[in-house]
Known about the structure:
Helix content: 40-55%
Number of helices: 12
Shape: elongated
Amino acid sequence: MFHSESTVLKLFVFSLSAFIFSCSSGRSEKKLEDVTHDYTEYVKASCAYEYGEGDSAVVSDSKRVVDSYFGKRYDEGLLTPVLAASAAELVRFAESKTRVHFYKTKAYQPDSCGFANSLPSAPTDLEENFARFAKEASVLGLYNRANTPGLPSTTPDASIIVRADSNKWILIHEYMHHLFHSQLDKDRPDFESDLQGDFGRTSKDYKNAKKELDKQTSDRKDKVKVAKEKLHKLAVMGVDILKVYFLEEMAIEGVLGDLMDDGQLKVVHSAQRINGAGYILTSAKTAEGLMEEMKNEIEKFQTLYKSDLESTDNSQFTSVLNKYEDLSKEMQTLKRKARHFLSEENLTFNGLMPSLIPTSDDANTSRPGCNHHELSPKVREVFEKLGSDYIYHGRE
């Protein structure tokens, strides 16, 4: 089940503003289902600029590793030179300065422009992998880490695949995934490749420890101690899981939005800033739900086993809960900024991205949606089923 536990496949889906927003300027609001087949803004984005339109990437040898949202680090010296550059220069610079290769796959819309046609076609293994994910969502960009198992074309370098009718925003979004994960590999070697597997194993250990608590034995307090240690470890790792996967989309769109607002990010279609704000808000919904499950599990454990826990045990839980609270505060900051931007654009957010909308039998299930992360489904299940799988029988 953990075939991809050492794999990070980052997908960026260009969600059309028509899908996400309704006008609030006194006109009657459109229903979301009335505009789900409107690909106007995507087509415009592919045609707004030529692939070679823009400045040259200014080569800089200065390394400036900075902390962005949620403490995610990247080398600013590898991003700043491409902000005003053409897409062609972005690709040239990235490939010459970092270990990544860019490829194209077939266009998404027949009436769009071949913005990225100059890119080489994706090798067969990467093309088939892209197609596999595209069956589940309308994927427009895909990032594969270097040495991804089962993808020989990622050895020794990472890969980015985009649609032939892509645009610079999608290219730079995927490039930021690469910058984040490249820096993480330098800061904490092998950390990401082991994270999902360790998280899954710790989840299983915690579940087994909880089952032991069902047995009425004299060593109950020792068993509570074991379960506490497993839960604490799971919660600490949960912070990393959230930062590496679920919150990365928010971080990228936050950084790009700031740079566009400051006038640094250029040669991008203006509607993409609107979509980025919506992407932040929908990404937050997913992360907040998962965080709440973990926090509820800890608080329930503390309540049910209060007499068996020592002050140091509770201090450890308090420390990790504070980390979740810090993430939540930063998420709120990004959400406020996103909503403020949208209000200035006279737009309101309806709270749904296309992939999160329940579909009927005759609905278009291939419309663009939002797939924030590609990791083992069991990782997400650990969060989502904490409240239902780990049932307390040992104490009323």
